[in-house]
Every structure is written in C-alpha cells, then in structure tokens.
Amino acid sequence: MNEEQRYFDKIAEGYRALDTGGTPVRRFSEVPSLLKHAQPLAGMAVLELACSDGFFSRLLRRAGAASVLAMDLSPEMIALARAAEAEAPLGIDYRIGSVLDMGVLGQFDLVFSPFVMSYARDRHELLAMAKALFANVRPGGRLLSMNDNPGLLPDSETGFAKYGKTKRITPPVQDGADLTVTWRVPDAAGRDRSLAFECRYFTREALEWALAEAGFADVRIRHPEVSPEGLAAHGEEYWRLFLQHPLLVFISARRPWTGPGSAS
Ligand SMILES: C[S@@+](CC[C@H](N)C(=O)[O-])C[C@H]1O[C@@H](n2cnc3c(N)ncnc32)[C@H](O)[C@@H]1O
Q1: Is there an atom of ligand 1 within 6 Å of 257 CB?
Q2: Cα–Cα distances in Å, from 143 out to 30, 107, 180, 211, 231?
Q3: How far apart are alpha carbons 225 and 243 in whole angstroms?
C-alpha cells in the first residue's frame, strides 16, 4: 500500500463515522444537480472514479443506470462501499485502483468523476487524468465531472460552515495550489465534527485545456443548483453565499464519434 492510499484510508474512518450525505451541500445541491446533469441515465453503463464510500454510485444506480462500475484508490473506502452493497445489493462492482493507471476498464456511456481532477499534482498529471477518463468513454459517450469550482473564493470557509463543507486555497491562487477541503458534519451524538483533507486547485483554463487536449469536445462548466426542498428547508438568504460563490461546478464533455460514416 502506498502513502496516498494510507492517507485516504484514514479519511475513510471519517466517512464511516459521519453522514456526509446528509450535509446541506450534498443533500440539497450536489445530489439534485448531479441527478439533473447525469440525464439520460436509464440503461446507461456508468463508470465512477474516486467513488469513495459509493454514495454517488448507489444514487446513479437507483436513478436508472443499467450498470455501475466504481473505483477508488483507497481499500478502506472500497470496503465501506462493499459493506453497503452487501447490506442492500444493487449489483455495483467496486474496485480498488488509481485513475492514473487504470488503463481501459471498458467503453462507458457515462464516466462520472466526482472531484478526481483535484488529485492531480500538476498540469502534467491533470492531462494524464483527462486522457485516462477519455479512454474509458465510448465514442459519442459523455464525461461528467463534479469539480472544485475554478472560480472558488480563496477563503470559502468564512460563512460556509453551515453548508457542511468548506474550502480554502493556499495562496498564490494558481494551478496546483493546495486546497483544503473540510467536511463539517454532526456525529451520531449531534456534536459538530470536522474532517479535513488536502487536494489541489486548478484554473478554468487548465481544466478546459486538459480535457480538450485529451480529445473531449463540447466542454461546458455549469454552476450547481439548490433544490426546491433545500430552499424550503433553509430559505433563500441562507443559500445566497453558496449560489454566488459555489464550492463546486459540473463539467460535462463528449467523446466525439469516430470512424467511417460518423459525424464528430
Ligand atoms: C476524500 S474523497 C472526496 C471525493 C469523493 N468522490 C466525494 O465526493 O466524497 C477523495 C477520494 O478520491 C480518491 N482518490 C484520490 N486520488 C485518486 C486516484 N488517483 N484514483 C482513484 N481515486 C482517487 C481517494 O481515495 C478518496 O476516496
């Protein structure tokens, strides 16, 4: 096991103890926005990369995906995902592995990568990741990446704790800058707990460059939404800061059709 795996295995202990799926940001924004942007899902073969405890894998399968293959670097994260699968089987195939050396696992209708590009060390590795994603999308298929917002406020901690997740970029704000992500979640006893981990910030220009260079077309970056339930539960004022300065974005892209007789 390498150092990176050990690092995320420790984070997995936090994922086991805390209901990250119940945080306002995940419940009222990430989930409904993902369900919207992932459509059409019915009958689709989905590959999810950096699936952690399988939270989104189960969501996509329940929302109609025909199959979900989900991979994560951390054996402990995959153990959590497999435990959930054993408890309520959905037929999801969870595997341990790195995006950077996964090769071609198949030709998927949809490759979903929640925050995986934030684990590239620099632009060179960002491009390697984008190429790895591309290799697993079938011609005509789609990539959907949930990503740290390249327009993130460098201090996305002040005022953000109420959403259940905060972020901070260590200056200078540039490609590869350290980005600290902190879940702020009540534990089973209702005490506020935090779980922090490090990843990296990339500019919009770098993300768009890497995806285009890898061969993707129609690269689009969209802000997340807040569901009507989220607005009803907390009110518009509560969400104002988040909607003005979202913690995340959705990046969609398409692998062009190739071969004789097909339009790209
Ligand atoms: C702390 S989690 C956050 C992302 C997670 N998808 C979520 O939204 O909750 C980061 C995950 O990315 C995984 N990861 C980091 N680098 C990876 C890589 N190169 N390949 C696959 N998984 C990776 C880690 O093992 C960890 O489970």
Answers
A1: no
A2: 17, 12, 25, 10, 29
A3: 7
CB contact set of 206 (below 8 Å; sequence gap of 6+): 123, 126, 150, 175
119 lines ligand 1 (CB under 6 A): yes
Answer whether 47's CB lies under 8 Å from 110's CB. Answer: yes
Closest ligand 1 atom, residue 197 Cα:
1
In ligand 1, the atom with minimum distance to the C-alpha of 77 is 27
Give the tens place of pLDDT for each residue, 18-27: 889 999 999 9
Nearest CA owner, ligand 1 atom 8: 114
Q: Which residues pair with 111 in a beta bridge?
A: 47, 143
Question: What confidence category does residue 258 fall into, taking pLDDT thresholds of 50, 70 and 90?
Answer: confident
Half-sphere exposure of 103 (CA within 13 A, CB side): 1
pLDDT of 259 > 90? The answer is no
- Give the domain ranges of the chain: 3-150+203-254
Please work out whether the CB of residue 98 comes within 6 Å of at least one atom of ligand 1: yes
Taking the whole predicted model, whether its pTM rises above 0.85 is answered as yes
106: left (phi over 0), alpha (psi -120 to 50) or beta: left
52 lines ligand 1 (CB under 6 A): yes
CATH code assigned to 3-150+203-254: 3.40.50.150
The type of residue at 100 is L
